[in-house]
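Customer escalation, tier 2.

The customer says the design service returned an amino acid string that "doesn't look like it belongs to this structure." They asked us to rerun it and document both sides in this ticket. The original structure tokens are below, unchanged.
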């Protein structure tokens, strides 16, 4: 709901988001969805674009061929450039994770994900540093997921 204090940019962003939501409701199956955001820089502009929405797993291609069909990618060099960009982004995301140093790689993947989620939520909710949250939460995870050789000593 718009208030008197809403800026023209906020109103335009809300309008564009409403349009995108209506468009996305009409889309089913494999394919991209409309997203709304702003350009970077000193004087941002409201933009919309089509992108895959990983919150809707059934909309995501699951094979290389289905990706190429949905995306309209016709040639292998273009596909390889997408793979490189995605791989680079995934590597950056992993390397820049502020909790990576605290996660024990011997834990199962789902436990690592849960640990990150619990620490972030506790840190935000209790308004404490990530390090303080780790100090409180990690001992429980370490005990829960300790290798059997360490628990029978």
């Amino acid at each position: 709901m718009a208030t008197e204090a809403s800026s023209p940019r906020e109103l335009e962003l809300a309008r564009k988001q409403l349009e995108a939501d209506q468009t996305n409701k009409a889309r089913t199956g494999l394919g991209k969805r409309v997203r709304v955001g702003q350009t970077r820089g000193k004087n941002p502009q409201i933009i919309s674009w089509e992108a895959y929405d990983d919150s809707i797993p059934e909309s995501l291609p699951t094979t290389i061929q289905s990706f190429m069909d949905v995306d309209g990618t016709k040639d292998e060099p273009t596909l390889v450039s997408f793979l490189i960009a995605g791989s680079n982004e995934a590597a950056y995301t992993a390397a820049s994770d502020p909790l990576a140093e605290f996660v024990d790689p011997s834990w199962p993947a789902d436990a690592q994900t849960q640990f990150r989620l619990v620490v972030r939520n506790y840190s935000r909710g209790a308004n404490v540093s990530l390090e303080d949250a780790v100090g409180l939460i990690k001992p429980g995870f370490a005990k829960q997921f300790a290798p059997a050789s360490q628990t029978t000593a």
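Tier 2 assessment: The sequence is consistent with the input. The longest strand covers residues 33-38. Residues 8-80 form one domain. Sent an explanation to the customer and offered a walkthrough call.
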